[in-house]
């Protein structure tokens, strides 16, 4: 018996078992394509969510800045704003002292649109107004977003805000 040599049929069957079949390679490639495409879809929706979160924060800052600016005005100036242009200029919110600040301002001005409306409440003899500030923008996916808030402003200050109704 010669144990050192193998027969030709034994060598051929061993070489067939050592590689992958075309079906196994195709299945592995399919799994890889699905995994990579799923990861890309998840990353894309993550970037959309991140963009929305960032811009929502900036919109909230724009709203807060405008609300505080209007609340510091006198009643006569608030009444004058009722007939003024409803568009809010972002000049008063974003500084433009340095080149970087000017660049940021330009980007914000191109991205966000802010409006203000001031409506008197007739139930309070027109001495109380509702101030509404709305900010709109488009996300990186082209979807329009809007954030809005409102507050009340009294002619004679905060303590005159509370009215009591006689029964």
List the helices and strands and how they pair.
Elements: H1 8-17, H2 22-71, H3 75-83, E1 87-88, H4 99-111, E2 113-120, E3 128-138, E4 144-154
Antiparallel strand pairs: 1-2, 2-3, 3-4
Please provide a written account of the structure.
The chain is an alpha+beta fold and 167 residues long. The chain has one domain. 49% of the residues lie in helices and 19% in strands. The protein has 4 helices and 4 strands. The chain has helices spanning 8-17, 22-71, 75-83, 99-111; strands at residues 87-88, 113-120, 128-138, 144-154. Strands 1-2-3-4 form a 4-stranded antiparallel beta sheet. A hairpin with a 7-residue loop joins strand 2 and strand 3. The chain is elongated.
Question: What does the main sheet amount to?
Answer: 4 strands, antiparallel
Q: Please tell me the total number of domains.
A: 1
Task: Pick out the low-confidence regions.
Answer: 160-167
Total beta-strand segments: 4
Proportion in helices = 40-55%
What is this entry, summarized?
This protein is an alpha+beta fold and about 170 residues long. The protein is built from four helices and four strands; from the N terminus they run H-H-H-E-H-E-E-E. It has a four-stranded antiparallel sheet.
